[in-house]
Amino acid sequence: MRRVLLALPLLLSGCVDFQNQYAPGRARRVDGGPDPRGLKSAVEMKDPTSLAHFAWGINPAAFDGEKRKTEPKAALRFAVAGKGGRKFKMDFFSPQPQTVKIRVNGQWIGEVQASGNATFEAAAEGSLFVDGTATLVEIWSDVGVSLYRAGFSNP
Fold first, then answer.
1. Sign, CA torsion 89/94/96/102
2. Exposed, middle or buried: residue 114 (CB in 10 Å: 0-12, 13-18, 19+)?
3. 33-89 pLDDT, tens per residue?
4. 4: which of 11, 12, 20, 130 is 20 to 30 A away, CA to CA?
5. Distance (Å, rounded) from C-alpha 153 to C-alpha 28?
């Protein structure tokens, strides 16, 4: 009986993984953002490589050969090199009158009232971009839009 009482704690301690109790140092580092390799600064939705630019809210299957449908909140990723300011431009179709708002790396850069085919164009300050990380562009709308193309260019 005494052996069973001594063996029970040893058996139960075998179920715990003590050596992995704390995450290694590299797992505790701050995430600097997604790797921008393979991304472009601008993309057309009919380009097969456009799928790499989808962060969320864009269904890869909702494609009519020219444009891709987004949810009311969607995001794209781009590789933007250099510290200077850029201009963001997006051509899209709005199925009904609505306000479409755009954020770049968490900062609002503008909005447009859209119905049917529309274009959004706004300057994005150089301070919004971080070298070596992907730039996240969020698209906020009431019912979603259908994207033709989007991206950054020099002003």
1. negative
2. buried
3. 555 667 899 999 999 889 989 999 998 888 888 999 999 999 999 998 776 778 999
4. 20
5. 35
Residue 42 · residue 78 · CB < 8 Å: yes
Q: Give the pTM.
A: 0.75
Q: Which residues contact 80 (CB under 8 A, 6 or more apart)?
A: 41, 86, 129, 135, 152
Amino acid, single-letter form, for residue 155 = P
Q: Which amino acid is at 152?
A: F
Domains, the chain, in order of start with CATH, read 34-153 (2.60.120.200)
What is the C-alpha to C-alpha distance for residues 26 and 15, in angstroms, rounded to an integer? 26
Other Cβ atoms less than 10 A from the Cβ of 112: the count is: 18
Residues in the chain: 155
